[in-house]
Amino acid sequence: MSELCNQEKTVFSRPKTIKEDYDYTFCAGCGHGVVLRLVAECIDELNLQKDTIAVASVGCSICLEKYYDLDVVGSSHGRAPCVATGVKRAKPNKIVFTYQGDGDAATIGMNETIHTACRGENLTTICINNTNFGMTGGQASATSIIGQKTATTPLGRDPKLFGYPLKIAEMVAMCEGSCYVARCGVFNPKSIIQTKAAIKKAFENQIAKKGFSFVEVLCACPTGWKMSPVESMKFIENEITKTHKLGVFKDT
After folding, report:
1. Backbone angles phi, psi at 97, to 5 degrees
2. Percent of the chain as helix, strand, coil, to the nearest 5
3. Which three-class secondary structure string do you get for 195-225?
4. Is 1's pLDDT higher than 60?
5. Does residue 147 contact residue 157 with C-beta atoms inside 8 Å?
6. Contacts for 245 with CB less than 8 Å, ≥ 6 apart
7. Are 130 and 219 in contact (CB under 8 A)?
8. Given CA atoms 18, 22, 25, 29 in this order, what sign does their dihedral have?
9. Most exposed: 13, 65, 110, 190, by fewest CB within 10 Å?
10. Between vectors from CA 17 to CA 16 and to CA 19, what angle results, nearest 5°?
11. Can you tell me whether residue 158 is helix, strand or coil?
């Protein structure tokens, strides 16, 4: 037995960027925890912990300082890109990223997201798209898909009443200042691996001073969707990806 113990090797451990004593506040089955870890792993692998500043906005991302052992700046709802722009221009040698939801980056703050991309600010935005306002009660967001039932579309999203889903990644890709735009997910092992690669590339682009990188991540919101975690994963893969198609939309 002692010989077997001596042969054990650590193959999985907590990223240094994640605090040891963090208090996890997300709902069970939510995709935020996975993405937070992927971001932390990328920061560790690129040795950026001492040089990174995160910008949190209102929503499920509001408590980043609880999870990350980083400098974290708070912003009002939808305004994280504006705050990040100020931080990056004041500290151009720092790595600056925003962590936002779709209600934040693609709905209330869509204007800020697009103008930041058009200016080509050398920073990174990670947009968690769970197609609703997850923290405030599950209301419809700009990215909610047709037929989706939410707190404000109880009969399903009807385009005649609420318009069509906004596809934020495609819009950002059209901006000349954006250098890398991808949409991925965290609903199965393959998608998680692809998401980490996209996040890492976005940080590498910022190091190389290429411009604005935008990574949209399709995530589950079992509470807002009123589904089990397993049903939520299937909903992303079988329904949401039909509207919000996965892929790299720009890579310069």
Report:
1. -140, 150
2. 40, 20, 40
3. HHHHHHHHHHHHHCCCCEEEEEEECCCHHHH
4. no
5. yes
6. 183
7. yes
8. positive
9. 13
10. 85
11. coil
Kindly give, in sequence order, each residue whose CB lies less than 8 Å from that of residue 231, ignoring residues fewer than 6 positions away.
222, 225
CA angle 85, 102, 224 (to 5 degrees): 145
Whether the predicted model's global pTM rises above the 0.90 cut: yes
User: Of 212, 215, 213, 221, nearest to 240 (Cα)?
Assistant: 221
Q: Would you state the pLDDT for residue 248?
A: 98
pLDDT at 88 over 60: yes
Describe the crossing of helices 32-45 and 189-207 by its angle, rounded to 10 degrees: 40
pLDDT band at 134 (very low <50, low <70, confident <90, very high): confident
Residue with tokens 């451990």: 13
* CATH level 3 topology of 24-131+143-251: Rossmann fold (3.40.50)
What is the DSSP code string of 60-79?
TTTTHHHHBSSEEEE--TT-
Residue 25 banded pLDDT, cuts 50, 70, 90: confident
Residue 184 bridge partners (DSSP): 217
- Predicted confidence band at 5 (pLDDT cuts at 50, 70, 90)? low
Q: Cα–Cα distances in Å, from 174 out to 133, 171, 178?
A: 25, 5, 8
Cα separation, 37 vs 42, in Å, equals: 9
Average pLDDT over residues 91-96: 98
